[in-house]
C-alpha cells in the first residue's frame, strides 16, 4: 500500500462516505449506490479508486460483487498517524 494512493482516495468526501457505509458490513455496488444521487458509473469509479488504494476488498458471490473494508490498511494508516503524534 502506498500512502499517496490512500490519501488520494480519502481526499474525496464521497469515498469517505462509502467507507463509512462499509464499516457496517459488506455491500453490493447497487446497495452502495442507493445511498447517493449519482450514476452507477460514478459509483464504480469511486469504488475503483478505493480498491486501488487497498482500502476495500471485493468478493464475488454468484452474479454479485460485494465490497468490504480492508481493516488492515486502515489499522496501518492509524498506526502511522499515531507515530506522527508522538
H/I helix tally: 5
What's the gyration radius in Å? 13 Å
Alpha-beta classification = alpha+beta
Unreliable segments (pLDDT under 50, ≥5 consecutive)?
none
Descriptive notes:
The chain is of the alpha+beta class and 86 residues long. It contains five helices and three strands; from the N terminus they run H-H-E-H-H-E-E-H. Strands 1-3-2 form a three-stranded antiparallel beta sheet. It is globular and about 45 Å long. The model has no long low-confidence stretch (mean pLDDT 92).
Give a quick precis of the structure.
This protein has helices at 3-10, 13-22, 29-33, 40-52, 71-85; strands at residues 27-28, 56-61, 64-69. It has 86 residues and is α+β, with helices and mostly antiparallel strands. The radius of gyration is 13 Å and the shape is globular.
Question: Main traits of this protein?
Answer:
86 residues, globular, 5 helices, alpha+beta, 16% strand
Topology:
Layout (H helix, E strand, L loop, with lengths): L2 H8 L2 H10 L4 E2 H5 L6 H13 L3 E6 L2 E6 L1 H15 L1
Antiparallel strand pairs: 1-3, 2-3
Amino acid at each position: 500500500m502506498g500512502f499517496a494512493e490512500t490519501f488520494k482516495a480519502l481526499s474525496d468526501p464521497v469515498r469517505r462516505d462509502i467507507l463509512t457505509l462499509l464499516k457496517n458490513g459488506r455491500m453490493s455496488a447497487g446497495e452502495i449506490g442507493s445511498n447517493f444521487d449519482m450514476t452507477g458509473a460514478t459509483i464504480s469509479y469511486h469504488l475503483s479508486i478505493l480498491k486501488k488504494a487497498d482500502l476495500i476488498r471485493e468478493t464475488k458471490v454468484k452474479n454479485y460483487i460485494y465490497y468490504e473494508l480492508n481493516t488492515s490498511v486502515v489499522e496501518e494508516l492509524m498506526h502511522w498517524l499515531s507515530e506522527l503524534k508522538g
